[in-house]
Amino acid sequence: MDLELEVAKQTKYKLRDFVKFMASGVTPKITEYDKYYCDSSNGIPFLRVQNLSPEGLDYSDCKYINKETHNNLLRRSQVSQGDLLIKITGVGRMAITSIAPEGFEGNINQHIVVVKTKEPRLNEQIAAFLNSNIGEMLAAHRSTGGTRPALDYTALRSIPIILNDSISNIMNRAYAEKTEKEKEAQSLLNSINDYLLQELGIVMPLEEENTLENRMFYVNSNKILGSRFDPNYYKGETEFNDLIQRGFYPVYDFHKVITSITNGVEIRTYAESGFRYLRVSDMGKNGIVNNNVRYVAVDSIPHKIELSLNDILISRSGSLGLITVVTDEIVDSILSSHIFRVRLSNKIDKYYLQEFLRSNIGQRQFFKLNNGGIIPEINQSALGNIEVCIPPMKKQKEIAEYIMKLRTKANKLLLEADKIIMLAKVEVEKILLG
Q1: Structure pTM?
Q2: How far apart are alpha carbons 87 and 111 in whole angstroms?
Q3: Using CA atoms, how far apart are residues 49 and 208, in angstroms rounded to an integer?
Q4: 3-class SS of residue 157
Q5: Residue 126, CB half-sphere, CA atoms under 13 Å: how many?
Q6: In this predicted model, what pLDDT tens digit does every residue of 354-406 receive, in sequence order?
Q7: Rounded distance, CA 352 to CA 347, Å?
Q8: Which of these, 37, 162, 310, 315, is most buried using a 10 Å CB contact count?
Q9: Rounded to a whole number, what is the distance in angstroms from the first to the last CA of the chain?
Q10: 110: nearest Cα among 171, 54, 152
Q11: Distance, CA of 403 to CA of 105 (rounded, Å)
Q12: Crossing angle of helices 133-142/393-433, nearest 10°?
């Protein structure tokens, strides 16, 4: 079937027929962070591809720019309520489209375009079509480039658009059902931290109101002289001093419960097949991510970074403190230089350690012990100083098994959520092509 011909039978419109204005942004230099960026309380959302989804904008890993950058350097790419936001470059699905929500003010980088349309009332139908399987295939046909495909403005404007009220209604219902499943799954995942700390007898301090007075604290000058000057290091020490020691079980420095820590290797040339190359982007908060698998063509895995099923992996820079146990799925992989391979002693269960390091108390230590730079990084020496609460092995396994059951339930819900969208898209495809 020639998809272009089939779609042409159903519509006379192309995206250009609806466009009043289209622009993409730029990414301000991260090395000049203070000049362009700021925190969420004072900033303007700066959207990247990972913030776009058919269901709407995802702010979970959103960056923020200051108002001066928004109104000057990025004035042309400002986003407001009702605008279409379309992905135009990058690996994976092309032309993912979100609609800016009510009251929204934001901006975008160069991998997204903002589209202001002549008839905003039609934006939901346009977005529903672009997010359909048919819309994706039409966009993919028009993209150019190899490892990093792209849609230029002319190609994007040429995509045919089928307007159909029913498809946006079908997809909106499906997205709502998917969101409910995801909320239920997230609730299970959120309960893991409270369960773990309760079993260990660790009571976290109550969160204080984010006022200037509560953000201020004092450190003796003799602690700072000849040492670090970044406040986060000492703030962590003030907030969590002796916290783990007040739990039920003994505490050990990380280096006492492992046998070795090894860095991966840097490889910049990928191949169509070969050994999987594990990067930080392949490590999610809840395990390995397979959205964008990379391979490298080498004869064998260097001995010093061979993986075993008794290892855990820890991201050491960028998205710091991502943890995953080595499983059969990834045991024959090569590690990026931004990941540590950690080999464990017989004092600790690998699944228990994974959950402890993922917990609030574990993640807070990564935050405290990182190098304090713009791009956070932790070295082997600092990693070895992380404190780990060590119950008897029987208790470790009990905790790990309970948490694994919660994760299994959550994953089942997430699979059900994905299936809802898949079935809705099949229904939409039948409507669009008759």
Answers
A1: 0.74
A2: 6
A3: 33
A4: helix
A5: 29
A6: 999 999 889 888 888 877 666 778 889 989 999 999 999 999 999 999 999 99
A7: 11
A8: 315
A9: 13
A10: 152
A11: 39
A12: 80
